[in-house]
Amino acid sequence: MANIVLTGFMGAGKSSVGRELSRLLGMKLIDADEEIERSQNMAISEIFRLFGEERFREIETEMLRKLAKEDRVIISTGGGAVLREENMEALRKNGTVFCLVASAETVYARTKQSDNRPLLKVDDPMSRIRELLSARMPFYEKAGTMIDTEQKTPQQVAEEIARVFRCGT
Ligand code: S3P
User: Fold this and answer.
1) What ligand 1 atom has the least distance to the C-alpha of 9?
2) What is the pTM of this model?
3) In a 10 Å sphere around its CB, with 0-12 CB exposed, 13-18 middle and 19+ buried, how is residue 129 labelled?
């Protein structure tokens, strides 16, 4: 299994854990959202505002299909990537998928300053986080190995993933 794929809700720590993993294993980190922003020359929030979520999901699927062809890289996906089974199927072909898990409170604390998370730009972000988390939980559970991130540093989480990854390769 050549790639490591990180999934999980917004604020679960995919980016910071991805950076640690990249350092630990000497593998390149590719952030799918950053690749989308580069390819569209636009921030994620602008894509949502101008074209809507459905179009964003199409662009995301195209990008993930392309990234899935990489080898020996870490792919950090956006929190909604798990919603389309075709995304996960493509990523699984050459990758081990991990799902980072955090509580609604932790997600809120980690995302409240963010300007680039259009789905949480609502009057009551905490309720939105709870709603989305519970609706998406079945998708996250199906995606791959669940890794609890509560009370752990990104380095600890990265070490845990590296152990599992090394065992399977
Ligand atoms: C989304 C998560 C975001 C980004 C977009 C949609 C989601 O990525 O892809 O705003 O549906 O959960 P992060 O999980 O990196 O914040």
Assistant:
1) 14
2) 0.97
3) buried
Ligand 1 centroid from CA 79, angstroms: 4
- pLDDT over threshold 80, residue 168: no
Is any ligand 1 atom within 6 A of the Cβ of residue 10? yes
SS (H, E, C) 92-106: HHCEEEEEEECCHHH
CA distances from 149 to 7, 17, 49, 144, 160 (A): 12, 10, 31, 15, 10
pLDDT tens digit string along 53-64? Answer: 999 999 999 999
How far is Cα 19 from Cα 129, in angstroms, rounded to an integer?
Answer: 25
Kindly state the helix (H) or strand (E) to which residue 43 belongs, with its residue range.
none
